[in-house]
Amino acid sequence: MFGGAFWDELYRSRRTVWSDEPNPQLVAEVSGLTPGTALDVGCGEGADAIWLAARGWHVTAADISSVALERARAVAISPEIASRIEWLHIDLVAAAAPGEPYDLVSAHFMQLPPAQRESLFRRLAASVKQGGSLLVVGHHPSDLQTTVKRPPLPELFYTAADIAALLEPNDWDIIVEASRGRSATDPANRTVTVHDTVLRARRRARSS
Questions:
Q1: What residues have CB less than 8 Å from 83, skipping those under 6 apart?
Q2: pLDDT tens digit string along 142-200?
Q3: For the whole model, what pTM was predicted?
Q4: Distance CA 59, CA 79 (A)
């Protein structure tokens, strides 16, 4: 269920899958950072990458789904913003992150089995340059106790502490390790509170 064929079929089955707004935790955590190079992991239909590029970031926007990337490329944006985005079809669960280390690596809602998830996040952490930031956002395990639609697979959910434990303590400063509530609508159209796992860490710069 986690391969490219699954995601291509999901995108083909719906006119849009995600909103055209950036993820709120991205906005909250990145607005105060100095723009540089960014890797947007699982970019989907492109809202996060476009938001970053509009604020001066040079973004490598990667996704396993070619259908999602076609939609992202089709979004009407200015030539200036478009010039700051490279859309990349790649399975980052199986392949190393491309290019040089990034000032920001951002991964939102990569809900994978533990072994795949840990391998992915370790490699993403290794793709952050000294002084750069790693931002991981996911569905918190407490969401399974709500009526919001989530897959009944507890192993796919994780806390910020789970991600922090994957980082070498001597190399990283944990800036944010949180579970943040936000409103969502369940299948019965009721407003419920769900929680996002949020981990933002900064790789320490080594003295020469």
A1: none
A2: 999 999 999 899 999 999 999 999 999 999 999 999 999 999 999 999 999 999 999 99
A3: 0.94
A4: 14
- Residue 142 located in a structural domain: yes
- Does a structural domain hold residue 188? yes
Domain count, the chain: 1
**What CATH number is attached to the domain comprising 136?**
3.40.50.150
pLDDT band at residue 208 under the 50/70/90 scheme: low
Range of the domain at 92: 4-203
Q: Which of 103, 167, 154 is nearest to 131 (CA)?
A: 103
Residue 208 maps to a domain:
no
Q: What size, in residues, is the chain?
A: 208
Closest CA to 170 of 124, 129, 205, 128: 205
